[in-house]
Amino acid sequence: MPSLPEDSPDAAAEADGPRRRLPPEERREQIIDAAVRFFADVGLDGNTRDLAKRLGVTQSLIFRYFDSKQDLIEAVYGRVYLDRISPGWAALLRDRSRPVKERMTTFYREYGERIFDHDWMRIFMFSGLAGADLNRRYLDHLGRTLLLPMLDEIEAELGFAPSPEDLWNLHGGIVYIGIRKHIYQMPVPDDPYPGIERAIDRFLRV
Amino acid sequence: MPSLPEDSPDAAAEADGPRRRLPPEERREQIIDAAVRFFADVGLDGNTRDLAKRLGVTQSLIFRYFDSKQDLIEAVYGRVYLDRISPGWAALLRDRSRPVKERMTTFYREYGERIFDHDWMRIFMFSGLAGADLNRRYLDHLGRTLLLPMLDEIEAELGFAPSPEDLWNLHGGIVYIGIRKHIYQMPVPDDPYPGIERAIDRFLRV
DNA sequence: CCTTTAAATGAGCATTAGATCATCAAGATC
DNA sequence: GATCTTGATGATCTAATGCTCATTTAAAGG
C-alpha cells in the first residue's frame, strides 16, 4: 500500500494548511493525546514548543486550553491512568468456578495487554521518578484489589499461602518485560505470554 | 550523638567560609560525587546552578572542570556504572564445587548489595529513559556473562534448561524490589534476601 | 452576503539555564 | 614576607522556555 499523497512533505506535523478551527472539547482532547505521546517520548521536561510543532499548532494555543504546563501534565496523567485497571479483574480473580492458575493466566494476559504499552510504561516511570504519588496510589490499589485477593485464592485452592512479597516478585518479573522493552529498549519476545504462563506455573507449583 | 556544631546553619551547602582551593583532581571527584547524588535526586535535567549550590561553589566552577553539562553527565555515568558488575561473579557462578542454588543465592545477595542503591537505581532509570545505550550495553553484558552461564549451570546440575526469558523473569522479579523502593518509593521489606531466596527456590524446583 | 464570536496566531515579556571570561585571592615557592 | 601560579569568583552573554495578549480570521447565525 503506497503512502498517501498528502503526507509527503513532512510527516511529523499534520498538514499545516490554513488554520483550522476545532470545537474546544475536540481540540483539548487532541492536545492531550499528542502530549501523552510527546511526554512519553522525551520526558515531562519536554518543552511546549516542540509539542506544538508535533501538533501543527502554535505554542500559545496550548495555553489557551491549559493554564500551565503542570496543568497539561495533570491532564496527561488523567488520560494515562484512566481505566488502566479493569473493574472486572477483581471478580475474575475470585471466580472459584475456574482454577486459580487459569484465572491468574487470564488476568496477566489482559493486564499485559494494557500495560505493555510504550506511552503508559514510560509515563508511569517518568512520573514515578518525578515523585508523583499517583504511582504509589496506583500500586497500592493494585496490591489491595488484585494481589491480595490472588493470595487468598491461591491459599483456598492450593492450600499454601505465599507472602505478599512473593506475589510482588511474580508481578515484578512480568512487569520487567515491559521495562526492558520500553524503557531500556531491549529486544523481548514478540509474544511474552508463554513466558508469563511459565512464571505463573512455577509460582503455583507446590 | 549530637550533631556537630559546624553543620548547624544550613546543612545542604558545605560551610561556605572563605573560598577554598582544592587540588584539581580532588575537586573534580568532589563535583562528580555531588553530581551523582544530585542527578539521581532531580533527574538529568537538573540545572547546574542548583548543583553548585549543593556543592557550595559557584556554578562557573563546574565548567572549569567539565567542558559541558553533557560532559559532566558522562562522568556521572562513568562513576555509577564503574565496577557495578564484579569480575568474580562469572567464576562464582561456574564453581561446580557448590550447588547452583547456593551459587545463585550468593550471587543475588552480592548483586543486590550493589544495585539496591538509591543513586544507581535512579540514574540507571533516568539514563534508560533518556535513551542512553549504556543501559543496553550493561544489560547485554549482564546477560552474556552472568545469566547465560547460570543457564548452563542449571542444566548441568539439575538436568533441565530454562529459557533465557525465564531467567530474565527471575532477574526482573528481583530487580523490581529496587524499583519499587527507589523509583516508586514504596515500602519494601528491610531485608529483601529471604524473599529473593524463595524466588530462586521456586525457580530451581523441578 | 454580512455580522458576530471565539479559535488560532505571532510578536514579545520575564526567567531560567548553559557557557564564557576578566578579575580576585589561596596557598605553594623562594 | 614578597611573588607567582592557578583555583575560584561574579558579572554577563545568548539561547531556550513558560506564559501573555493584541490581532487575525475560520466558520456559525442571520
Structural features, described:
Chain A is mainly α and 206 residues long. In chain A, 67% of the residues lie in helices and 0% in strands. Chain A is built from ten helices and no strands. Chain A has helices spanning 24-42, 48-55, 59-65, 69-81, 88-94, 100-115, 118-129, 134-158, 164-183, 193-204. Chain A is elongated, with a radius of gyration of 21 Å. Mean pLDDT of chain A is 92; it is low at 1-13. The interface between A and B is large, with 40 and 40 residues. Chains A, B: Residues 25-84 form the HTH tetR-type domain. Chains A, B: GO terms for molecular function: DNA-binding transcription factor activity; transcription cis-regulatory region binding. Chains A, B: It holds the Pfam family TetR_N. Chains A, B: InterPro entries: Homeodomain-like_sf, HTH-type_TetR-like_transc_reg, HTH_TetR.
List the helices and strands and how they pair.
The structure is a homodimer of 206-residue chains.
Chain A: H1 24-42, H2 48-55, H3 59-65, H4 69-81, H5 88-94, H6 100-115, H7 118-129, H8 134-158, H9 164-183, H10 193-204
Helix pairs in contact in A: 1-4, 1-7, 2-3, 5-6, 5-8, 6-10, 7-9
The structure holds a DNA duplex (30 and 30 nucleotides).
